[in-house]
Amino acid sequence: MDLKDLYRDVIVDHNRRPRNFGPLPDANCSAEGHNPLCGDRLKLYVKVAGESLENLAFEGSGCAISVASASLMTEALKGHSLADVRDCYEEVHKLLTEHGYVPKRDLGKLAALSGVREFPARVKCASLCWHTLIAALESERQPVSTE
Amino acid sequence: MSAQVIDTSEKSAVAFDVERVRRDFPILAQRVNGRPLAYLDNSASSQQPRAVIDAIGTYYRESHANVHRGVHTLSQRATEGFEGAREKVRRFINARSTREVIFVRGTTEAINLVAQSYGRSNFRRGDEVVLTQLEHHANIVPWQMLAAESGLVLKVVPIDERGMIDVAAYESLLGPRTKLVTFAHVSNALGTVLPIERLIALARARAIPTLVDGAQAIPHMKIDVQALDCDFYAFSGHKMFAPTGIGVLYGREALLEAMPPWQGGGDMILTVSFSGTTYNALPYKFEAGTPSIADAIGLGVAIDYLGKLDWSAVSAYEEGLLAYATRRVGAVPGVRLIGTAERKVSVVSFVMEGVHAHDLGTILDAEGIAVRTGHHCAMPVMEFFKVPATARASLAFYNTREEIDRLAAALGRAREVFA
Asked: Which residues of chain B have a CB within 8 Å of the CB of A12?
């Protein structure tokens, strides 16, 4: 068990300086995610234009993994098609949960999350923002919980 | 580290041999992530001495059958073991009679029993239950469920910035509609010892029944339910070095006698017919279904084990260890202690600037150190201190200063991970 595998430089960096952090005034959907066990809370703002995820941002507080994961996600998905966002979600989900999973596409910086799967108690932290994103896209009104 | 702390160490080391005690707990002698295990999560669940673990195996190998049913030898053995454990519990908490000792799954079930049986049959719309802001969710939610159903009103005693309850506020909440008061003996999130003797006396003077959540007190202090003069006292086996799946509700006999059963089934009846059923006597009226026999026997053996320890030495050792842990953890740069009550046992709860509690938990685990991180099932406490979560080191008499040193050193390095 190597902490460096979990807290990779890119994760530490995105925790310290989260990208796309703050409200998004022209968002047309949003959702709240909550991980009651560890107290992670985030709100995700999404602007969808046609079939494209034109912009997204988040705010909230949580552990380094949840904050970095949300920051990386917003950076990775901006401007992508909704179909691509779904595909990316599936890939990240497998990356987080399947031992030795090799992604079918280049996930860029999101690949830094692969260390999380060796820390089963932390998978929820990394996946919270993704579940929240799907909820926002489906315009669910209720907060997402990973419990 | 001050000279004062070292003095305490030397004093208690003479009277209490921690290394010898540690050898009684097989699970402690292992490495986790390449380092010796430092188990500092005893408020969540304690570990079991070999005698308890062996008793469970012996029971299943030699004596298992259902209790209170057969005339055959094994059933008699099982019944003797199970009822023998009840008598051990009775003596352990100084109940008047084994009729006052109800076996349950744990503290949570004990509180639910009181809520569902005593509460449902005694509370009317607009009646009040007084509880504190320190309560574990297990002593909040059962009352909220009842409130939603019956119009019961919950009155909450506030806490201060040290994590102590306001006794004057408590007293002012006791009124003509107060039908029950309930409080933790020791806060699970903060370690605060509540002045329960005073709280019980104030309630008793107004003839209000009292329920004490003793889950966190029972492993650290001698409980005498008659001296306390409470009406109900609930605790769990697994917090006091016994197995999971067994706990106790102590109840004053006159109250239990008047309470209706809360679960129906075997063992809680005398006769059943479709024209009507008569219920069994105490304590069986509240023990429907086959109980956790082996775990009850394990609880009895844990009580035997605790009875062999010199408790004045154990208490002095625990007190010294908590003072040491408070000082060492409190001195780590960036650490803020949460809960600094005058009287505490076992718990050092804290947050670290710039490092979320959940990350601390992972970082400590990588060094073999087990602490709890999160809201500790006490979200109102977290809300009061305006923190989403804390890290909590909780101690038992088998913990050592060396483990505290490792905790402090690992915390000192935690910020480097994010530097």
From this structure: 417-418
Q: DSSP string of B339-407?
A: ---SSB-SEEEEEETTB-HHHHHHHHHTTTEE-EEE-TT-HHHHHHHT-S-EEEEE--TT--HHHHHHH
Q: Kindly give the parts of chain A with pLDDT less than 70.
A: 140-147
ipTM value of the model?
0.89
Query: Cβ contacts (< 8 Å) between A63 and chain B: which residues?
Result: 356-359
Is some CB atom of chain A closer than 8 A to the CB atom of B358?
yes
Picking from B307, B325, B355, the residue at the C-terminal end of a domain is B307
Q: Please judge whether B358 and A41 are an interchain contact, meaning their C-beta atoms are less than 8 angstroms apart.
A: no
Percent of chain B with pLDDT over 70: 97
Beta bridge partners of B156: B131
Distance CA B19, CA B152 (A): 51
Tell whether the model's pLDDT for residue B315 goes beyond 90.
yes
Same domain, B377 and B294: no
Instruction: For the beta carbon of residue B91, count every other beta carbon within 10 angstroms.
Output: 12
- Could A61 and B366 be called an inter-chain contact, meaning their C-beta atoms sit closer than 8 Å? no
Which positions of B are catalytic?
Answer: 377
User: Model's pTM, two decimal places?
Assistant: 0.93
Secondary-structure percent of chain B, ordered helix, strand, coil, rounded to 5 = 45, 20, 35
Whether domain A3-145 has CATH 3.40.50.261: the reply is no
Residue A22 and residue B107: Cα distance in Å, rounded? 43
- Identify the domain containing residue B227 by its residue range: 53-307
Residue B78 domain flag: yes
Q: What is the chain A residue with the closest CA to B354?
A: A16
Q: What is the pLDDT of residue A145?
A: 60
Residues B335 and B398 in one domain: yes
Mutation site, B31, B33, B352, B358, interface A, largest A CB count within 10 A: B358
Q: Closest partner residue to A38 among B355, B389, B418, by Cβ?
A: B389
Minimal Cα distance from B374: which residue of A? A38
